[in-house]
From TrEMBL, chain A:
Organism field: Desulfurivibrio alkaliphilus (strain DSM 19089 / UNIQEM U267 / AHT2)
Cofactor remark from the record: Binds 1 [2Fe-2S] cluster per subunit.
Gene Ontology BP terms: iron-sulfur cluster assembly
The protein, known as: Nitrogen fixation protein NifU
List of residues binding Fe cation: 35, 61, 105
Regions that span the bilayer: none
Domain NIF system FeS cluster assembly NifU C-terminal: 208-273
Family matches, as Pfam families: Fer2_BFD, NifU, NifU_N
Domain (NIF system FeS cluster assembly NifU N-terminal) ranges: 3-123
Residue ranges constituting the BFD-like [2Fe-2S]-binding domain according to the UniProt record: 132-182
Described purpose of this protein according to its UniProt entry: May be involved in the formation or repair of [Fe-S] clusters present in iron-sulfur proteins.
UniProtKB/TrEMBL annotation, chain B:
Cofactor(s) the protein needs: pyridoxal 5'-phosphate
Pfam families documented for this protein: Aminotran_5 (PF00266)
Function: Catalyzes the removal of elemental sulfur atoms from cysteine to produce alanine. Seems to participate in the biosynthesis of the nitrogenase metalloclusters by providing the inorganic sulfur required for the Fe-S core formation.
Enzyme Commission code: 2.8.1.7
Domain (Aminotransferase class V) ranges: 8-372
Coiled-coil stretches noted in the UniProt entry, renumbered to this chain: 256-283
Protein name listed in UniProt: Cysteine desulfurase
Length: 277, 408
């Protein structure tokens, strides 16, 4: 069973603004029966140009219904310019969070809003203009690229959680990797860029050894212990403990809470430290 | 805190309540009777004798001999042991025949084997028809000289549909192929007699028949080639290393004895309750579709799709009323696609996402069934009122509202 927040449950059990607006100014429709969730959003503008009313119809799970309900509450009283700034993260946050596998429900809410605004303005749905990358769920590269940027996605699995792309037959996984690489490389130029995630084994070993020499070994030596890098296989770092660390009862804790943490912070966030047997 | 509604448990294909008599049989072995059944002293020997009784109880339920029963940790271990043992018995053969609707215990193992051996193992997954039935001619055609093992479930966990495994085993035998059946859903619900069967290997899971979770058994026909999955001590005559999960095995034995005594009730009272539930829902709720063959299935299972609504939403509403059920919808599985079983049967997306499995046990009552029949129509109506597809389905424009993918 999914761990839903009380707010998700509340919106799901008592959804606000269910229905249609017959003379809506904008209608946004996203998703499909095949995809397993779909949202039809209606917006009506007041004389002041602000969203006076919003209603929805949703086919989907608790997250999809709750996201739709929360969205309609959030956009009432906003101008279209203000409304289009609402992100999927805002919707998820409004609900007190969603399970990571269900983030695509908040994305669906955001896309329905964009589609409704585009419908009102008489322009094509922006995200639908891109190249369809995931045939199973009809997700375009534009949607994927935006999700990677906005939600700082780091893996194909995360892309799937947020956009559903890659969640079907899996044939687009290579393309998703490619897009991920392209977008992550771009973001390297940004000031807050994280270290590159594609490292060769030699690069990893070099960085690990440097960190060992610079920080970890001096710290362990203070307590009469020491550590050596034994092997590296993908993300698995095998180390051998030396000196006092060998007999220390807390050595496992040291490896996980200190050594692995340091390696993840300074080398690669997916590294796993294991002790040589 | 608001009063919690009483639990109406209709998810017995997922797991079952431990029968109070089973629990009672187990309790002394958590306490004073803690000896190791392999020990030479009489304190352990006493436990060993009870273990032997449990083995006989399991064997009796399926018409086997005690020597043919190997205790395992679960149905999945039994499945893995059976298939891997068969492959070891015929190392020169690389072909496995199974179906598209197997439980992940078999499905994922076969896929894993295929990848692990660099696609040297070929896996044929037999298709099923709209009722979830297999075509025996297709099955026969799939067998060849390279086939090492056939692994076909006896009863499908989602739809309850029964496969003709007895007949399939005979065909396999005539071709010199080992036959395994994952019978975790069938054991205790339908009569099984291994003495008159050609099945070589059969998997049992304790928690599907009112024993605890974490215990299972594998039937290994006398003389069938076998290799252990877990290698260690001499337990289970060297067929499964590791000290036995004594208390749970004693529970499994007791549960099997109870199941044998309740087979008639399962096939009469439980079946009637299931039929009443099914008819009540199908007659009161429009666009409700039965998934699976109406006759050729377990007496306790019904799988119904409610078009244009999504399964997880139905389950959560049912949960509010204390009703426990399952769904083959994508949202309940963590995947993004609905049940592989329903998809293999060609159930359209309009229905596959809104499937609900209701599985009964001997503990269910008619009042509970009446309650579910009373609550379900309102739940479906509420969700359909919210669904963008429900109204349009009556206007002939179902599916694909602004959709870029195909809605079958």
């Amino acid at each position: 069973m999914w761990e839903y927040t009380d707010k998700v449950r509340e919106h799901f059990m008592n959804p606000r603004n269910v229905g249609e607006i017959p003379d809506a100014d904008g209608i946004g429709e996203v998703g499909s029966l095949a995809c397993g969730d779909a949202l039809k959003l209606f917006i009506k503008l007041g004389p002041d140009g602000k969203i006076a009313d919003a209603k929805f119809k949703t086919f989907g799970c608790a997250s999809a219904i709750a996201s739709s309900s929360a969205l309609t509450e959030m956009i009432k009283g906003l101008t279209l310019d203000q409304a289009e700034k609402i992100s999927n993260e805002d919707i998820a946050q409004e609900l007190g969070g969603l399970p990571k596998e269900k983030m695509h429900c908040s994305v669906m809410g955001r896309e329905a809003l964009e589609a409704a605004i585009a419908n009102y303005r008489g322009i094509p749905i922006p995200m639908a203009q891109g190249e369809v990358v995931c045939e199973c769920f009809g997700v375009t590269d534009l949607e994927i690229r935006r999700a990677i940027h906005e939600s700082k996605l780091k893996s194909v699995e995360e892309i799937t959680n947020f956009t559903k792309a890659g969640g079907g037959c899996g044939r687009c996984h290579e393309r998703l990797e490619e897009i991920l690489r392209e977008e992550r490389q771009e973001s390297k130029a940004e000031p807050a860029a994280e270290p590159a995630k594609k490292l060769t084994n030699i690069q990893k070993i070099k960085m690990i050894e440097e960190l060992f020499e610079r920080e970890i070994r001096p710290a362990l030596r203070k307590d009469g212990g020491d550590i050596e890098l034994v092997d590296l296989d993908g993300d698995f770092v095998t180390v051998a403990l030396r000196g006092a660390c060998v007999t220390c009862k807390k050595s496992k804790l040291t490896l996980k809470e200190y050594v692995e943490k340091k390696l993840r912070e300074q080398v690669l966030d997916s590294l796993i430290v294991e002790e040589a047997r | 805190m608001a009063d919690q509604p009483p639990v109406i448990y209709l998810d017995n294909n997922a797991t079952t309540k431990v029968d109070p008599a089973v629990l009672e049989a187990m309790l002394p072995y958590f306490g004073e009777l803690y000896g190791n059944p392999s020990s030479m002293h009489s304190f352990g020997g006493q436990v060993g004798r009870t273990l032997a009784t449990a083995r006989q109880q399991v064997a009796s339920l399926i018409g086997a001999t005690a020597e043919e029963i190997v205790f395992t940790s679960c149905g999945t271990e039994s499945d893995s042991t059976a298939i891997l043992a068969a492959l070891q018995a015929f190392p020169e053969k690389r072909h496995i025949v199974t179906t598209r609707v197997e439980h992940p215990a078999v499905k994922h193992l076969c896929e894993h084997l295929d990848r692990l051996t660099g696609h040297k193992h070929r896996v044929t997954k037999l298709p099923v028809d709209r009722d979830g039935l297999l075509d025996l001619e297709q099955y026969e055609a799939a067998l060849n000289d390279d086939t090492a093992v056939v692994s076909v479930m006896w009863a499908n966990n989602e739809t309850g549909v029964l496969f003709p495994v007895e007949e399939m085993a005979k065909i396999a035998k005539s071709r010199g192929v080992l036959f395994h059946t994952d019978a975790v859903q069938a054991v205790g619900k339908i009569p099984i007699n291994m003495a008159e069967s050609a099945i070589d290997l059969l998997s049992i899971s304790g928690h599907k028949l009112h024993a605890p979770k974490g215990v299972g058994a594998l039937y290994v026909r006398k003389g069938a080639p076998f290799a252990p999955l877990i290698i260690g001590g001499h337990q289970e005559k060297g067929r499964r290393g590791g000290t036995e999960n004594v208390t749970s095995i004693i529970g499994l034995g007791q549960a099997c004895e109870l199941a044998a005594a309740r087979l008639e009730e399962e096939n009469s009272r439980v079946r009637q309750l299931r039929d009443k539930l099914e008819e009540g829902l199908l007659s009161q709720i429009p666009n409700a579709i039965l998934n699976g063959h109406k006759e050729q299935r377990l007496p306790n299972t019904t799988n119904i799709s409610f078009e244009y609504v999504e399964g997880e939403s139905i389950l959560l509403h049912l949960d509010q009323y204390g009703i426990c059920a399952s769904s083959g919808s994508a949202c309940t599985s963590g995947s993004l696609e609905p049940s592989h079983v329903l998809r293999a049967m060609g159930v359209p997306f309009t229905a596959a996402h809104g499937s609900v499995r209701l599985s009964l046990s001997v503990f269910n009552t008619e009042e509970e069934i009446d309650y579910v029949i009373a609550k379900m129509p309102g739940i479906i109506a509420k969700l359909r009122e919210m669904s963008p597809f429900w109204q349009s389905s009556h206007q002939g424009s179902v599916g694909g509202t602004g959709c870029r993918c195909e809605c079958s």
